[in-house]
Amino acid sequence: MRETSAAMTEVRITAPAAELAGYLAEPIGEGPHAGVIVIHDVFGLSDDIRVQADRLAAAGYLALVPDLYSGRGIRCVVATMQASRSGRGKAYEEIEAARGLLLEREDCNGRIGIIGFCMGGGFALMCAPQGGYAAASVNYGDVPADAPERLAGACPIVGSYGAKDLGLRGHAGRLERALTTVGVAHDVKEYPSAGHSFLNRFNAGPLLTPLIHVAGFGYEHAAAQDAWRRILEFFAEHLGEST
Question: Which residues of 87-97 are buried (b: 16+ CB within 10 A; e: fewer)?
Answer without folding.
Answer: bebbbbebbbb
